[in-house]
Amino acid sequence: MNPNKALWEQGDFTRIAAAMRESGEDIVRQLGIARGMKVLDLGCGDGTTALPAAKLGAQVMAVDIASNLVAAGNRRAEQAGLAANCQFIEGDACDLSGIENKTFDRVVSIFGAMFAPRPLDVAREMVRVTRPGGKIVMGNWIPNDPTLVAQILKISAAYSPPPPEGFVSPMAWGSPNNVIERFGAAGIAWEGISCDRDTYVFDFEGTPAQFVDTFRQYYGPTMNAFAAATRDGKADALYGELVQLFERQNQCQYPGRTLIPATFLRVTVSVG
Q1: Contact predicate 221/156, CB 8 Å
Q2: CA pair distance 107, 38, nearest whole angstrom
């Protein structure tokens, strides 16, 4: 099996996405989506940004490599009465060969396509399927950033085996220089690319420790880290580090709820 597919199918990202809905809607409201626009959401999960785009009247194609998330997204679209204009399909951000050139007004990937293993292919495909005058918008976690997700991935990596030869870190998408280089190779001049820091808020109904438990049970990268740490007798140490991180970054003053902001790089690419 494709290792990236295996990574995201082994858990259940819907459990994490439940804490991400409000910020997902905020991002979509800023995309300039009008009724009738065609939107592609890459690495869509179960629809945190795809469904809000459909609610604005867009025709949305939502693509994810994990079949369980595609099924969950189609269920959510059906339940929301949006199945007519929001379809979830299985696919790979590295190869969108089933999609015609210059199809979409907006190509969106919020913490999705950054995890695909061939970033140059991802950039090329996103540019290829975007209409002239359209925009590509990515949300990417930033390497070595002190906020939540970058630190989860950093801590998890410290307990995991070294990556295979040739591995390209998904966090490289959080560097503006890499973004400019990758879209430049796809034919986009640097003047058409903007990179800005933004904030995404995780809103979890439960304590920080319970939120860590959710990552441990359902988030692929954290699941892998715990599997490796368990083999090494270090699972308790990993758990303790993550609980400290979540408790330190929690900004909610009320017990039983967790609010954690995380900084990300918002990438906007104008396609001529």
Answers
A1: yes
A2: 9
Q: With helix as H, strand as E and coil as C, how does 167-183 read?
A: CCCHHHHHCHHHHHHHH
Task: Provide the number of structural domains found in the chain.
Answer: 1
- pTM for the full model? 0.96
pLDDT tens, residue by residue, 56-65 = 999 999 999 9
pLDDT digits (tens, 9 = 90+) for 200-249: 999 999 999 999 999 999 999 999 999 999 999 999 999 999 999 999 99
Residue 226: which domain range? 3-270
